[in-house]
Amino acid sequence: MVKQLSKKFPLAFIVWKYKAYIELELNLKNDAKESLKRALILNNKDEEIWQLKYAIEE
Fold first, then answer.
1. How far apart are CA 54 and CA 11, in angstroms?
2. Are 24 and 52 in contact (CB under 8 A)?
């Protein structure tokens, strides 16, 4: 469902943020990094995105 949303709303940072979160929970770190990269481009002021970025890098 999230993959469909990311295709339907490619400029919605919140979709990419939660897609990265789900991918991180599923231990898909490379996919999560790519989703997070898009989220950061769209909104680099969101604190939760930065927290996810640091969680992925650990």
1. 23
2. yes
Mean pLDDT along residues 44-57: 92
pLDDT in tens, 3-36: 788 888 888 989 999 999 999 999 999 999 999 9
CA distance linking residue 1 with residue 52, whole number of Å: 21
Helices (H) and strands (E) in the chain, counts: 4, 0
Rg of the Cα trace of the chain?
A: 10
Query: What's the token pair of residue 18?
Result: 């939660």
pLDDT at position 58 over 80 = no
